């Protein structure tokens, strides 16, 4: 029985079957049958193992996809909450109720509100002072911030891995590209469009 088990596991069986086959060649068919049966069972076991592995990998991928969906949903909820918080903060900073936030209003805001704003958006050295933060949020150099510009800039500063100045530069370049692609009247082409482009660069540079 032990010898048969050794043959089934193909554990150094040459020392077993060679002397037997040499003594009785008829046993060759017996050992060949055993080896073929074992090879078939081995293939079945390998196929079953591959199937189990495939199921496990597929389950892991499904779980990872679900985790990503949950993470995206959580981030969306957090973003909405932060937007509401920023809108309330904007109203507190907009002392004259004009819908536009200026640097003077930001400077004259209560210390608590300014600290909250810096806590949310101060991700860079330059954003640690109010004036530097305002300049980075006011990407077009207009001297004031509307609600969308304020919320978008602060939210980007608090969630993006990229520096806020880089995002500002990308948006400036996008606006300049739109200006260049916009159809120009015949009398406004040439020098006029170049002057407009120069003004855009000058405002973007702050």
TrEMBL record:
Transmembrane segments: 25-42
Signal peptide: none
Single annotated GO MF: calcium ion binding
EF-hand domain location: 81-116, 125-160
Domain of life of the native organism: Eukaryota
InterPro entries in alphabetical order: EF-hand-dom_pair, EF_Hand_1_Ca_BS, EF_hand_dom
The protein, known as: EF-hand domain-containing protein
């Amino acid at each position: 029985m032990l010898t048969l088990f050794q043959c089934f596991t193909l554990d150094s069986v040459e020392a077993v079957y060679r002397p037997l086959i040499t003594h009785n060649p008829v046993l060759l068919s017996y050992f060949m049958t055993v080896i073929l049966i074992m090879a078939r069972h081995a293939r079945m076991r390998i196929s079953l193992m591959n199937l189990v592995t495939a199921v496990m990998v597929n389950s892991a991928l499904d779980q990872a996809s679900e985790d990503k969906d949950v993470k995206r949903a959580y981030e969306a909820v957090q973003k909405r909450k932060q937007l509401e918080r920023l809108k309330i903060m904007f109203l507190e900073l907009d002392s004259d109720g004009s819908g536009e936030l200026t640097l003077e209003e930001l400077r004259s805001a209560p210390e608590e509100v300014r600290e909250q704003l810096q806590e949310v958006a101060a991700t860079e050295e330059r954003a640690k002072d109010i004036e530097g933060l305002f300049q980075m949020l006011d990407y077009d150099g207009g001297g004031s911030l509307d609600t969308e510009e304020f919320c978008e800039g602060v939210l980007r500063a608090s969630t993006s891995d990229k520096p806020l100045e880089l995002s500002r530069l990308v948006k400036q370049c996008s606006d300049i590209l739109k200006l260049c692609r916009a159809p120009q009247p015949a009398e406004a082409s040439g020098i006029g469009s170049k002057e407009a482009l120069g003004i855009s660069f000058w405002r973007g540079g702050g």
